[in-house]
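Below is one such record:
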Amino acid sequence: MDMTRGLIARADLNLLKLMVAMLDTRSVTAAGAALGLTQSATSSALGRLRELCADPLFVRTPTGMEPTSYALRFGEDVRAALQTLELSFARQSGFDPANSTRRFRLALSDVGEFIFLPPLLAAIAKLGPRLAMEAEAVPRELLAAALAEGRIDLAIGVLPAMKGGIRQKTLFRESHVLLTRANHPLAKKPSRAGFLAARHLVVTPRETQHYGAEGLLNEMGAAARIAVRVPHFLAVPRLIEHDDLVVILPRMIARLFAAASSGTAAARLVYRELPMPAPSLDIKLCWHQRFEEEPANRWLREHCVRLFAGKAQE
C-alpha cells in the first residue's frame, strides 16, 4: 500500500495521458502530436513514465512501439480512470459547443459515412465551429468494447445486439429494394422468375450485422446465382453499371446509388420493389451507459435523433 501511495504521489496527469496516447498510436511521434508535445519532450516524458512504473512499457519493433503485458493492463486502468475524471468535470461544467474543440468519434459503415455524416456534420458545425468528427468502421465483435471504453462515442447503422451496458434507440425501420441497370429486364418488370434467374451481387460487410441478402437467396433456392460477393457497399455501383448483375439493398442505399449514377441512360442505376417479401432493417443509434449523462455525448445523441429519427427513406 505504501508503494502504491508513493507511485500516486509521483504520478503526473500528463504522464498518464501519454500512457493512453501511446497505447492508441504505438508511436512516440504520434502520441506527442496528439498531446501537443515535441518528440524530445515526449521521449523525456516516456522515460519518466518507465521509471515510475519500473517497466519498459513500450518496446520498439518493426511495426511500431508495442506495449508490454504490464502496459496493456496498466494502460486500460489509466484510460478508465481518466475517463472517469473527464466525466466528473463534464457533469460539473456542462458542454458548450460554441467553444468546444471536442472530436466526436462515430462507428459507421462505408455507406453510413455518406448517409449520416454529411447532415450531422453540417448541423453541429453551425453550433460548434471548432468541433470535429471522426468516422471509423469498427468490426462488430469489437464495437461494444469500443463504446464502453469511450474510444467510440456513438454508433449508427444496422448494428448487432450488444450487452454490457450498451444503450440503443431505433431511429427508423428500413425496407429492401432491387438495384440494377436501367436496361435490365428486371428494371422494366420485376418478377420472381426473373429474379431467380438473374446473376446476383451480394454485399457482406464485416463491420455490421447485415440484412442477410444471401440468406434470402438461399431460402429461395437462388444461391447458385450469386456471381460475386464484395465486403464494401461502395463497390456496388461500378459493378452494376458494367455487368448484368442485380443486388438487394436497403432502400436508403439504393436511392443514394441511383441518384449518383452516371453514364448513358441505359447504364444508369434504378431501384425497384422486390417481387417477394424481404426482412426489414432497424437502423439504430447506440452508446454506452457510462456516457448516458455525459453532456457532450448526450448533446450529440439529441442531434442524431432530431436529424434521423422516423426519417426512413421513401
In short: The chain has 14 helices and twelve strands.
